[in-house]
Protein: Peptide methionine sulfoxide reductase MsrB
Amino acid sequence: MRKRIRAGNDLSALRTMAGTMIRETGETAGRVLVCNAVTGEMEEVERVVRSDEEWRRRLTPEEFSIARKAGTEPAFTGRYHDCKEDGLYVCVCCGNHLFSSKTKFESGTGWPSFTKPVSGRNIRTEPDTRFSMNRTEVLCRRCNAHLGHVFDDGPPPTHTRYCMNSASLRFVRQKDLPGRRE
Structure:
Protein backbone atom coordinates (compact mmCIF):
# COMPACT_ATOMS: atom_id res chain seq x y z
CA MET A 1 0.00 0.00 0.00
CA ARG A 2 1.41 3.37 -1.01
CA LYS A 3 1.27 6.26 1.40
CA ARG A 4 0.42 9.62 -0.09
CA ILE A 5 2.31 12.65 1.10
CA ARG A 6 0.62 16.06 1.20
CA ALA A 7 2.03 18.62 -1.20
CA GLY A 8 2.96 21.06 1.58
CA ASN A 9 5.01 18.48 3.47
CA ASP A 10 6.39 16.36 0.66
CA LEU A 11 9.95 17.73 0.65
CA SER A 12 10.21 17.56 4.43
CA ALA A 13 8.75 14.05 4.50
CA LEU A 14 11.09 12.88 1.75
CA ARG A 15 14.11 14.28 3.58
CA THR A 16 13.02 12.54 6.78
CA MET A 17 12.44 9.26 4.93
CA ALA A 18 15.81 9.54 3.14
CA GLY A 19 17.61 10.30 6.41
CA THR A 20 16.05 7.25 8.01
CA MET A 21 17.05 5.04 5.07
CA ILE A 22 20.64 6.31 5.16
CA ARG A 23 20.91 5.74 8.91
CA GLU A 24 19.46 2.23 8.57
CA THR A 25 21.59 1.11 5.61
CA GLY A 26 24.66 3.31 5.95
CA GLU A 27 24.43 4.04 2.22
CA THR A 28 23.95 7.07 0.05
CA ALA A 29 23.27 7.24 -3.68
CA GLY A 30 26.96 7.39 -4.61
CA ARG A 31 28.50 5.41 -1.76
CA VAL A 32 28.04 1.99 -0.20
CA LEU A 33 29.13 0.44 3.09
CA VAL A 34 31.04 -2.84 2.63
CA CYS A 35 33.29 -5.07 4.73
CA ASN A 36 37.01 -5.17 4.03
CA ALA A 37 37.71 -8.90 4.43
CA VAL A 38 41.41 -8.29 5.11
CA THR A 39 40.98 -5.86 8.01
CA GLY A 40 37.51 -6.97 9.09
CA GLU A 41 36.38 -3.34 9.18
CA MET A 42 33.41 -1.70 7.47
CA GLU A 43 34.35 0.88 4.85
CA GLU A 44 32.31 3.40 2.92
CA VAL A 45 33.35 3.21 -0.75
CA GLU A 46 32.18 4.75 -4.00
CA ARG A 47 29.65 2.79 -6.03
CA VAL A 48 31.07 1.79 -9.40
CA VAL A 49 28.83 2.81 -12.29
CA ARG A 50 30.01 2.56 -15.89
CA SER A 51 28.41 2.36 -19.32
CA ASP A 52 28.31 -0.95 -21.19
CA GLU A 53 31.00 0.41 -23.52
CA GLU A 54 33.29 1.17 -20.57
CA TRP A 55 32.70 -2.30 -19.14
CA ARG A 56 33.44 -3.88 -22.54
CA ARG A 57 36.81 -2.12 -22.61
CA ARG A 58 37.72 -3.28 -19.09
CA LEU A 59 36.48 -6.89 -19.20
CA THR A 60 37.01 -9.90 -21.44
CA PRO A 61 34.01 -10.81 -23.64
CA GLU A 62 33.20 -13.72 -21.30
CA GLU A 63 33.44 -11.55 -18.16
CA PHE A 64 31.22 -8.90 -19.75
CA SER A 65 28.62 -11.45 -20.89
CA ILE A 66 28.41 -13.05 -17.45
CA ALA A 67 29.04 -10.23 -14.96
CA ARG A 68 27.28 -7.40 -16.82
CA LYS A 69 24.59 -9.31 -18.79
CA ALA A 70 23.73 -12.07 -16.27
CA GLY A 71 25.11 -14.92 -18.35
CA THR A 72 26.33 -18.28 -17.05
CA GLU A 73 29.51 -20.14 -17.88
CA PRO A 74 29.19 -23.84 -18.70
CA ALA A 75 29.69 -26.16 -15.71
CA PHE A 76 33.25 -27.38 -15.02
CA THR A 77 34.79 -24.78 -17.38
CA GLY A 78 35.44 -21.85 -15.03
CA ARG A 79 38.97 -21.19 -13.81
CA TYR A 80 37.98 -21.42 -10.11
CA HIS A 81 35.58 -24.38 -9.95
CA ASP A 82 38.43 -26.62 -8.76
CA CYS A 83 40.69 -24.01 -7.10
CA LYS A 84 41.89 -25.12 -3.66
CA GLU A 85 44.31 -22.31 -2.77
CA ASP A 86 43.89 -20.05 0.27
CA GLY A 87 42.78 -16.54 -0.51
CA LEU A 88 39.98 -14.18 -1.32
CA TYR A 89 37.56 -14.06 -4.24
CA VAL A 90 36.79 -10.49 -5.30
CA CYS A 91 34.48 -8.96 -7.90
CA VAL A 92 36.09 -8.99 -11.35
CA CYS A 93 34.48 -5.63 -12.10
CA CYS A 94 35.23 -3.54 -9.01
CA GLY A 95 37.42 -5.56 -6.62
CA ASN A 96 34.78 -5.74 -3.87
CA HIS A 97 35.64 -8.54 -1.40
CA LEU A 98 33.10 -11.33 -1.86
CA PHE A 99 34.06 -14.82 -0.68
CA SER A 100 36.83 -16.40 1.37
CA SER A 101 38.43 -19.67 0.30
CA LYS A 102 37.68 -20.84 3.86
CA THR A 103 33.97 -21.03 2.97
CA LYS A 104 34.48 -22.71 -0.42
CA PHE A 105 33.34 -26.31 -0.78
CA GLU A 106 33.02 -28.95 -3.48
CA SER A 107 29.35 -28.99 -4.47
CA GLY A 108 29.74 -31.25 -7.50
CA THR A 109 27.91 -28.68 -9.64
CA GLY A 110 30.90 -27.48 -11.66
CA TRP A 111 30.83 -23.91 -10.33
CA PRO A 112 32.71 -22.41 -7.37
CA SER A 113 30.44 -22.82 -4.35
CA PHE A 114 30.61 -21.09 -0.98
CA THR A 115 28.63 -21.41 2.26
CA LYS A 116 28.57 -17.65 2.87
CA PRO A 117 29.96 -14.33 1.63
CA VAL A 118 32.63 -12.44 3.59
CA SER A 119 29.75 -10.18 4.66
CA GLY A 120 26.12 -9.85 3.73
CA ARG A 121 26.94 -6.15 3.22
CA ASN A 122 29.14 -6.94 0.20
CA ILE A 123 26.46 -8.63 -1.87
CA ARG A 124 22.80 -8.14 -2.55
CA THR A 125 20.16 -10.58 -3.74
CA GLU A 126 17.01 -10.30 -5.76
CA PRO A 127 14.44 -12.70 -7.20
CA ASP A 128 15.30 -14.13 -10.61
CA THR A 129 12.47 -15.66 -12.64
CA ARG A 130 14.27 -15.86 -15.98
CA PHE A 131 14.01 -19.13 -17.90
CA SER A 132 10.78 -20.03 -16.01
CA MET A 133 12.71 -20.72 -12.79
CA ASN A 134 12.39 -19.22 -9.34
CA ARG A 135 15.91 -18.50 -8.12
CA THR A 136 17.71 -15.91 -6.04
CA GLU A 137 20.31 -13.94 -7.97
CA VAL A 138 23.46 -12.75 -6.18
CA LEU A 139 24.93 -9.39 -7.21
CA CYS A 140 27.90 -7.33 -6.11
CA ARG A 141 26.63 -4.53 -3.88
CA ARG A 142 29.27 -2.09 -5.12
CA CYS A 143 28.82 -2.40 -8.92
CA ASN A 144 25.76 -4.64 -9.45
CA ALA A 145 27.75 -7.32 -11.26
CA HIS A 146 25.90 -10.60 -11.69
CA LEU A 147 27.80 -13.20 -9.64
CA GLY A 148 25.53 -16.24 -9.68
CA HIS A 149 22.73 -17.61 -7.52
CA VAL A 150 22.18 -18.76 -3.94
CA PHE A 151 20.36 -21.97 -3.05
CA ASP A 152 19.26 -23.61 0.22
CA ASP A 153 20.89 -27.00 -0.48
CA GLY A 154 24.36 -26.33 0.94
CA PRO A 155 26.14 -28.04 3.83
CA PRO A 156 25.51 -27.35 7.53
CA PRO A 157 25.54 -25.11 9.41
CA THR A 158 24.33 -22.50 6.89
CA HIS A 159 22.66 -24.90 4.41
CA THR A 160 23.32 -22.27 1.75
CA ARG A 161 25.19 -22.72 -1.51
CA TYR A 162 26.40 -19.58 -3.19
CA CYS A 163 26.91 -20.93 -6.70
CA MET A 164 29.13 -18.38 -8.46
CA ASN A 165 30.51 -17.92 -11.96
CA SER A 166 34.32 -17.94 -12.14
CA ALA A 167 34.13 -15.23 -14.82
CA SER A 168 32.56 -12.84 -12.27
CA LEU A 169 35.39 -13.41 -9.80
CA ARG A 170 39.08 -12.71 -9.48
CA PHE A 171 41.11 -14.75 -7.00
CA VAL A 172 43.76 -13.11 -4.80
CA ARG A 173 46.12 -15.53 -3.06
CA GLN A 174 46.36 -15.16 0.72
CA LYS A 175 50.05 -14.21 0.49
CA ASP A 176 49.24 -11.45 -2.04
CA LEU A 177 46.50 -9.73 -0.02
CA PRO A 178 47.44 -6.13 0.80
CA GLY A 179 47.49 -5.28 4.51
CA ARG A 180 46.83 -8.88 5.54
CA ARG A 181 47.19 -9.81 9.18
CA GLU A 182 49.78 -12.43 10.13
User: Anything to note?
Assistant: Helices lie at 10-25, 52-58, 61-68. Residues 29-176 form a domain with the Metal Binding Protein, Guanine Nucleotide Exchange Factor; Chain A fold (CATH 2.170.150.20).
